[in-house]
Amino acid sequence: MVLLQVVVSGLLLGGIYALVSVGLTLTFGVVRIANFAHGEFLMVGMFLAWVLHERAGIDPYLACVVVGPALFAMGFLVERSLIRPVIQASHMAQIFVTVGLAVFLQNGALMIWGADHRGVILPYADRVWFVGPIVLSLPRVVAFAVAMALCLALLAFLRWTYWGKAVRATAEDREITRVMGIDTGRVYSLTFATGAGLAGIAGALLLPMYAVYPTVGIQFVLVAFIVAVLGGLGSAVGAILAGLVIGVVEVLSGFLIAPGLQQALYFVVFLLVLIVRPAGLLGRRGAEELVVT
Question: Where do the domains of the chain lie?
Answer without folding.
Answer: 2-217
